[in-house]
Amino acid sequence: MLITITGAYKNAGDHLIGLRARRLLELYVDDEIINVDRKSAIDYKLLNSAKAVVLTGGPALQPAIHPNVYDLDLDKIHVPVVGFGLGWKASLGKSPEDFEFTEQSLSFLGQLKTSLFSVRDDASFELLKNLGFENLTMTGCPAWYDPEKIDDDFKVPEQVSSIVLTAPAVPNEQMVDLARSLSKRYPKAVKTILFQAGFRSTHSKKSVQYTKTLAWQRRFLRLLGWKAVSSESDVEIMTKTLAAADMHVGYRVHSHLFMLSQRKLSVLIAEDARGESQNKTLGRPNLTTKSQVSEIIESIESFRTNQDEQNKLSSSMREHFLEMKKFLESLKSL
Questions:
Q1: First to last CA, the chain
Q2: Side by side, which strands form the sheet with 117-119?
Q3: How far, in Å, CA of 268 to CA of 44, rounded?
Q4: Using an 8 Å Cβ cutoff, are 267 and 303 in contact?
Q5: Pairing mode, if any, of strands 81-86 and 117-119?
Q6: What share of the chain is helix, strand, coil (3-state, %, to 5)?
Q7: What is the average pLDDT score of the chain?
Q8: CB atoms within 10 A of CB 237
Q9: Please, which residues have CB within 8 angstroms of residue 220's CB and are 6 or more apart in sequence?
Q10: Residue-by-residue pLDDT tens, the chain, 334 positions
Q11: DSSP codes of every residue in 92-106
């Protein structure tokens, strides 16, 4: 039996990570899994009854990973504690050398340096390698992988009949300009704007302001034919909305990764280092909120029409899946 510790709330993308992680663990490690919410009271007796405790989720590698993300007393856990597809969180343009953990977090991570650990991008790998982690693998995010489609190639239609644009966490004018350009380029396409974490911002300081701005943008885009959908806390709405589309463009990392896992056309615009790291790790163009809309459109068309580009990406994801399987085999043998 395995214990996974996750944190999935408003953002449907976090729910996708947990679902995909548990699916991989069930297939390759142990089909008995108990999931624990990282914000719940810790039952150390339960944790110690497992074969291993698996830390799973999104950008857990934050300055205050302990206690803000994982409020665990590792001295009370007597089974292996494993990191699974964890990633860092930093602002746009930052490098691992710029990143600093709190003293509490460094102490916490110091206890995990010899643990089996996997991360979801190359920058996160470098960050932990610099801390002296010894048993570290870059597996990619569990959300990269739909086991039933690993061997598939991309299927990109000649004509785009439906588009999903994911809204950013922090509103920007680029999104509105991009929506205009997409409407002009694909005038007959069904157009959906997906708010992956819902219509209400959860920003720590500017939630009211951001919620109002996103609401105004939503109303404006409706005039251009964009239907707004919220997938707040609902991964099924998120995945069904995306699966029905020919193409995704936007700011949400896990909408992007879901579409890539389905071998569908997707272009990610990075809001922060999480998005930048995913694009760089997968060899995709470094599109950000500072990019010109024309550059984004050019990248969409390049991917849509270039079979070699599509094949290179599907091959890369299959190669990374081999590393994921090696990691899971190591976890099984603990």
A1: 12
A2: 33-37, 2-6, 52-56, 81-86, 117-119, 136-138
A3: 40
A4: yes
A5: parallel
A6: 45, 15, 40
A7: 97
A8: 16
A9: 176
A10: 999 999 999 999 999 999 999 999 999 999 999 999 999 999 999 999 999 999 998 799 999 999 999 999 999 999 999 999 999 999 999 999 999 999 999 999 999 999 999 999 999 999 999 999 999 999 999 999 999 999 999 999 989 999 999 999 999 999 999 999 999 999 999 999 999 999 999 888 899 999 999 999 999 999 999 999 999 999 999 999 999 999 999 999 999 999 999 999 999 999 999 999 999 999 999 999 999 999 999 999 999 999 999 999 999 999 999 999 999 999 999 9
A11: TT--GGG----HHHH
Kindly report, residue by residue over 68-100, the tens digit of the pLDDT. Answer: 999 999 999 999 999 999 999 999 999 999 999
> What CA–CA distance (Å, rounded) separates 297 from 302?
9
Sign for the pseudo-dihedral over CA of 59, 65, 69, 70: positive
Angle, alpha carbons 247-253-259 (nearest 5°): 35
Q: Which helix (H) or strand (E) holds 242?
A: helix 235-243
- Sorted by sequence, the CB contacts under 8 Å of residue 75 that are 6+ apart come out as none
- The pTM for the full model equals 0.97
Cα 16 to its chain centre, rounded Å, is 8
Q: Interior CA angle at 262 toward 156 and 150, to 5°?
A: 110
Burial of 199 (0-12, 13-18, 19+ CB in 10 A): middle
Side-chain half-sphere exposure of 275, counting CA atoms within 13 A: 26
Tokens matching residue 212: 């109002």
Residues 6+ apart with CB under 8 A from 120: 85, 86, 87, 138, 139, 140, 141, 278, 281
Closest to 293 in 3D by CA, of 206, 177, 130: 177
The letter for the amino acid at 291 is S
Tokens of 3: 């214990």
Residues in the chain: 334
Residue 112: what residue type? L
Angle at 147 between CA 142 and CA 153, to 5 degrees: 105
DSSP letter, residue 134:
S
